[in-house]
Structures are given as structure tokens and as C-alpha cells.
TrEMBL record:
Basic and acidic residues bias (residue ranges): 1-11
Residues in ABC transporter domain copies: 31-270
Pfam families: ABC_tran
SUPFAM superfamilies registered for this protein in UniProt: P-loop containing nucleoside triphosphate hydrolases (SSF52540)
Lineage: superkingdom: Archaea
Protein name: Phosphate transport system ATP-binding protein
Amino acid sequence: MATQEPDDKLISTEVSADETVRNERPDETVLAAKDLDVYYGEDRAIDDVSIEIPENKVTALIGPSGCGKSTFLRCINRMNDQIDVCRVDGDVVFKGKNVYDGDVDPVALRRKIGMVFQKPNPFPKSIRENVTYGLEVQGKPATEGDVERALRGAALYEEVHDKLDTSGLDLSGGQQQRLCIARAIAPDPEVILMDEPTSALDPVAASKIEDLIDTLVEEYTVIIVTHNMQQAARISDKTAVFLTGGELVEFDDTATIFENPADSRVEDYITGKFG
Ligand SMILES: Nc1ncnc2c1ncn2[C@@H]1O[C@H](COP(=O)(O)OP(=O)(O)OP(=O)(O)O)[C@@H](O)[C@H]1O
């Protein structure tokens, strides 16, 4: 269920020093949706969305339950291909190439655009095998260095370096989620999609993931769906607000969205008048 924060005054858009540096960098588009419509059978879930996602920034997707945030996220790396009734019209251009072109291999695409889900979902395999999986399906043997690099990148190495051959399922929820992040970054992606990555975690584990996102974005572009508006305000540089019917109503700097949105529907949503 969606949890909404009722009072906009509670939403601080104070930025970290790292974010200030990031915000001073000009936006370079890494990924763009153009006139995107997504249908499940006859029902439209995304309505004519165009958006340009900047590189090495955190973009948050917010909006009420059922407005199409996860659908949009899944379109980016063609996870929607796995849903029979789902049909996509329009383009998703990643580094100049429409990911829906016939010659794009979705499996290769998903290594460049990795994904982390709401519920930590490590494979029932060792910590090491979880990390090496993405490289080995590419036919690339993974080295110890690759494993260490991915686990360090996910701020997990110190906690697991002496038990790499134990099951990933024996870790705590927060550690499992960082293992999933390590698995996503092992093949050296450019974009990491996160679908409510902290909503199944306790506040301490969630806070670690938020800190990690702040580090990840130095190297990767992060696009995160969150129901938690404080979280969007805390960690993102840009915020896209979707509203019912799959319409992208406003996309701007996070501070602008939370402090001075152009669209009154966004203001109503942020102040808890609906959603
Ligand atoms: N596999 C599916 N088959 C049919 N309809 C679907 C499917 N997945 C999503 N939908 C519909 O598409 C619309 C958008 O759903 P989606 O999950 O993308 O929204 P959301 O904003 O991520 O919602 P929430 O915040 O509750 O997770 C909803 O009406 C939903 O019922």
C-alpha cells in the first residue's frame, strides 16, 4: 500500500554536499522516452510520456498508487517484454538507440540497465555466485577482483568478505538488498533502475541504501520509484510526478517540484490532498 506524507512542510529538500556538486554539473541526457504509451490489453497505463533522464544523477519517479511508475521503469530495460498483455508504443532511446529496435538484445540491454526490486531477491546461491552471475551469463569469467569491486561498490564487502561462499539468503534484508545492488553493478551497467528499493527494509537498512545511492550516482545513473516523498526529496536531483492514468505531469529539479511546482495537481499531491 502507498504511504503518503500529509504535510508538505515536513518535506525537506536540503541537499547534501555531494548533491550540490552534482547539481552544478550540466545535465547530459543518457536516456529519453519519446511519446511513450504502454497498454495492458486495452488499458493504457502510460499516456504519451516524453522525458529526458540526465546522466549521473538520481531521478525519482513519484505519484499515487497505480499511476504507472513501475510500468514506466520496466519499459526502460524491457522488463515489460515478459508480460504477455503488455504493449509499448513510442521510443525509449538509450545512448542514441531505441531499445525497442528489433536488433536490440534485451538480455544485453539489462546488463547495461540493471534493476533492483522492492523485495530483496538474491538467488538461492552463494554470495559470490550472486555477484558473478551477471558476468558469467555473458560468458565472461568473473575474477576475485570483480567480486570485491561489486561488493565494495554496494557497501557490503566489509560485512561479507570472510563468508563469500555462504548463501546470499542467510544475509539480513538490508544486506540482501545490497547484494542485489552488487549483482546489478557487477556487469558494469550505466543505469540502475530501483523499484521502491527500501520499502521492505527497516529504517536503518533503508538509510544505508539511501547513502549508497548517493555514492552510486557518481558512477551510474539512478532512476528510483518511491512512495516516500521525503525519500525522493532527500536523495534525488530530479523528480518526475506521474498522476492517475499514466500521465507525466511535471518533471523538474527536485527542489522545484517540492517547493514550487508549476502544476497545481502536483502541489495537491505533495501536500496530501489526494493520492
Ligand atoms: N501485469 C499487469 N497486467 C495488467 N495490468 C497491469 C499489470 N501491471 C500493472 N498493471 C496496471 O497498470 C497500471 C499501472 O500500474 P503500475 O504498477 O505501473 O503503477 P504504480 O504507479 O507503480 O503503482 P504502485 O505505486 O501501486 O506500485 C495499474 O492500473 C495496474 O493495475
